[in-house]
Amino acid sequence: MDTAVGFEVSQGELFHDVKSFFESAPPLKGSDSITQKVNEFVYQNSQLSGNAKSIGVVCVTSGGTTVPLEQRCVRYIDNFSSGHRGAASTEYFINCGYAVIFVYRRGSYQPYSRYIPEDSFIDLFEVSNNSEIQVCNSHASVVKKAIKEYHSAVDGRLLLKLPFTTIFEYLQILQVVAPSMSCLGPCGMFYLAAAVSDFYVPWESMAKHKIQSAAGPLDMRLTQVPKMLRMLRLEWAPSAFCVSFKLETDPGILLQKAEAALRKHQMNVVVANELATYKREVILITNDENIRIRQQNEGGDVEEQLIKLLVKKHSNYIECFGKDF
Ligand code: 9Z3
């Protein structure tokens, strides 16, 4: 999370920091295949293909990045994000007619299966009298709904899922997805709900093997992760509609920090949320207004209202921008 107040990095310094981040990162596994999948998905959902089924493409990022402390990683820094917001939002975007590139933390919540009870995968099934495996009656309707909706999204080419674990993988994937989406101009959207570490250990200064405790207390210097939101805006997809999130634990500084992020990174929207209430309430912040969105009923998703509003704002943006694109 952003801790340094007023620490500004010039554009030249940013480009330099980004270059050294990517140069020192371990190579992204399956990079060529990811690039190909993303390019095909974007093309199929762009007007260029002539038969686009979606009204736009949104890259939803979800879950938390890890920061490895050793190259042969035994230990890492992590954060609390479960990926529920990203998974729920993906479903609502698809309902609204979008195609979604879902960039998610391995093992985090997934669209369409987030209703399936946690820890009880094995409880969903039973062995019938003739030794066949079947879904228990108690869960049948939830499982059926999840399977149908999931397959309809994937088979309809409206959902592409790309997993990450580390901060390196997350930013390398974003570096592939964003330039690929730039051909969509204002029809592309970024919805950056992932909780991205602000600090990392550069690969070349990272211990190769497991850090030993015999050496006494551990002193470790973490480097700041370059502000990729600025890169996204300046270089990778300058005309896209960009939504980022600001999380704080102190309600007294939340709005001020979110408004500063909106200006500093030239986002179209910043969604402000507070740790204690983030499942029930978010505040959507734009240049013109702040809109508080609350969960409508116990167990309902705050994302339903949030995505509806964002879709409206995005379509206004396309309309204004479209004349010049
Ligand atoms: C968020 O604020 C998300 O809403 C949550 C969602 C992580 C709270 P869950 O995955 O939680 O449903 O459990 N995401 C962004 C958090 C973040 O790291 N923002 C940075 C910051 O606040 C800016 S990129 O400085």
From TrEMBL:
Span of domain DNA/pantothenate metabolism flavoprotein C-terminal: 186-290
Alphabetically ordered keywords of this record: Ligase
GO MF terms held by the record: ligase activity
InterPro entries the UniProt entry points to: CoaB-like_sf, DNA/pantothenate-metab_flavo_C
Transmembrane segments: none
Gene Ontology biological process terms, A to Z: coenzyme A biosynthetic process
Family, similarity comment: Belongs to the PPC synthetase family.
Name the UniProt record assigns to this protein: Phosphopantothenate--cysteine ligase 2
Species of origin: Platanthera zijinensis
Gene that this sequence comes from: PPCS2
